[in-house]
Amino acid sequence: MSDATPAAPPLVTRMVAEGIGTLVLVFGGVGTALYAADFAVGGEGTPLGVGHLGVALAFGLTVLVGVYAWGPISGGHFNPAITLGMATAGRFAWKDVTGYIVAQVVGGAVGSTLLVLIGLFGPDKWLSTAQSGGFASNGFGEHSPGGWGLGAAILVEIILTCVFVLVVAGSTSKRAPVGFAGIAIGLTLTLIHLISIPIDNTSVNPARSIAAAIYGGVGPLAQLWVFIVFPLVGGVLAGLIHRALFPEPKAA
What we know:
globular; mainly alpha
């Protein structure tokens, strides 16, 4: 039996896995926010929508599923901030960064497009109402769920993306217990959403933000730069911290 490490799949195969994983993340997370967060009220006055907690769990569960389903193929990034952070940490090849990010953005856009296609067959004016409400896009000021300003959005995206990428890097480290990374990553993303949905609807993922904003109208598109730039800043910061403080152990 050979002790050689199996060769990584070709880049195209890994890009497909990243695209599918990001599609599922957007479809599951944004779809829950659109379809189920504020769903109806029952005859007894019982709310049937899942609310912020349900949306947070949806994002966490979709990334958990993605990590276990497609992580063995591509590493399970599904997020440009993670890809950039892992490359900065020395844990991912810079030559593959562009391909991964392209696949993630395309996969996310396909996911939100599928949500729109389903919406075409929804109740009267459901789709137009969802789009006029921003289509679960990220935002600040008048587009923030809680009315939080630009400074809050910038800080929360840098801080929470940094924490998220540190957890990804730490839980997939050679020092970490094998097989538990998906749980740690999924629960961390859930926690992040619980903290920041009221502030800016939670990005920490430029691909997710782009996917929603393309159907959210002029306002979300005008603010999209914040949710591209600052999650990437947080990811790079996490990569630098991980590389400096938690270097990978050298092979014996």
